[in-house]
Amino acid sequence: MNVLVIGRGGREHALCYKFSKDASVDKVFCAPGNAGIAEHATCVDIKETDQHALVEFAKSNDIALTVIGPEQPLSEGLADAFAAAELKVFGPSQKASAIEGSKAFAKELMKKYDIPTAGYETFTDFAEASVYIKQKGAPIVIKADGLAAGKGVVVAMNVKEALQAAEDMLEHNRFGASSAKVVVEDFLDGEEFSFMCLVNGNRIIPLALAQDHKRAYDNDEGPNTGGMGAYSPVTHLPAETEETAMKEIIKPVVEAMEKEQLDFTGVLYAGLILTSEGPKVIEFNARFGDPETQVVLHRLKSDLAHLLLSLLDGEDGSTEWSDETVVGVVIASEGYPGDYQKEQPLASILKADTFFYHAGTKMSDDEIVSDGGRVLLAAGAGANVEAAQTQVYQALQSVHSDHFFYRTDIGNKALKRS
């Protein structure tokens, strides 16, 4: 079969790389792709938001399966456009993708169906929000309601920081329309982990757990980012964690979406935290996570394209996994998640002896250069976290650049608790 992946980041590189190895796949296309994706797929110069051109391309190139990577085209209804053209697409409808597109919607859904999450209130007025924040105290979490590329969350450790975050969002439109409403949440203490599931209606196929690292710098310091690294599996969590999360969170939310006539098809990503009261929801996403997808799919031995197509056809499926641990380290542009320079050469970094997933790269004058905040993810594999860490960090020892940085502690939480 021919497969089309829509997107241009590290998640899409991981999907294209996996599909290129699947026995069921003849050809992989990616729109628009990036410099690394071009090694594993035919890149097509169509933007993720150009619904008409994408649908026409799928029709004219005998595409049997389309997978939508980023959240923006999902929130704009790209999956609906493919479905209307009777093309098989793996991604939720515009209405169903509201579980990511509106944090307020997700919180209201969880409250209605008793799905464990942090206590919260929503605000559109800064004065009202500030009264609530002062009453609650800190630590406290401020979230932009809409999509903000993974940067719309501030975990404030003091009231001053919380008030500043709320003011930035509500008064100064830090994330435009996405922060016209904010969710103010109770702070949850515990171990965070990511649980992605392939879903079609009430059929659910769980993927391996991963742990993301959101803060920009070592020891979880600095601002939140889209993710600075991840690893899988997360073996130091209690054995029953996944089963409990499936029973108390994943299945109930899938059933809730059905009851609300928002049947979900695609990847349901649950960002969870293991508290003293059990797992609770931090956030839901309506697509593959980034950078978790890179480390999770790196371990998947099953034919992903066949799995997704079977699921779309209403069949159940199962997955087979490598026993190895994969640690992925994001190499980001200096200044990220704030301002940063693009078009910095990457040849010296790409010489490192490890596998790179390209997140923000492009070709310029026959040279691969940076084209985003998160630029590459270096993936190392080993028998356990320590071995995978050793592999990837030894390879990155040769990376010295004033234009890029990376965290040196991806996976350390597992070592401390093992």
* Category from helices, strands and their pairing: alpha+beta
Shape: globular
Q: Outline the low-pLDDT stretches.
A: none
Number of domains as seen in the coordinates: 4
Oligomer: single chain
| Largest sheet composition | 6 strands, antiparallel
- Name of the CATH superfamily of the largest domain: ATP-grasp fold, B domain
For this structure, the CATH topology of the largest domain is D-amino Acid Aminotransferase, Chain A, domain 1
Q: Tell me, what is the CATH class of the largest domain?
A: Alpha Beta
Determine the strand fraction and express it as a percent band: 25-35%
N-to-C span: 43 Å
What is the name of the CATH architecture of the largest domain?
Answer: 2-Layer Sandwich
Cofactor: Mg(2+); Mn(2+)
InterPro entries: ATP-grasp, ATP_grasp_subdomain_1, PreATP-grasp_dom_sf, PRibGlycinamid_synth_ATP-grasp, PRibGlycinamide_synth, PRibGlycinamide_synth_C-dom, PRibGlycinamide_synth_C_sf, PRibGlycinamide_synth_CS
Pathway: Purine metabolism; IMP biosynthesis via de novo pathway; N(1)-(5-phospho-D-ribosyl)glycinamide from 5-phospho-alpha-D-ribose 1-diphosphate: step 2/2
Protein name: Phosphoribosylamine--glycine ligase
Any overview of this molecule?
By secondary structure, the protein is of the alpha+beta class. The protein is built from 14 helices and 23 strands. The strands form six sheets. Strands 12, 15, 18, 19, 22 and 23 form a six-stranded antiparallel beta sheet that branches. The mean pLDDT is 95. One of its GO terms (molecular function) is metal ion binding. This is Phosphoribosylamine--glycine ligase. Keywords: ATP-binding, Ligase, Manganese, Metal-binding, Nucleotide-binding, Purine biosynthesis. One of its GO terms (biological process) is purine nucleobase biosynthetic process.
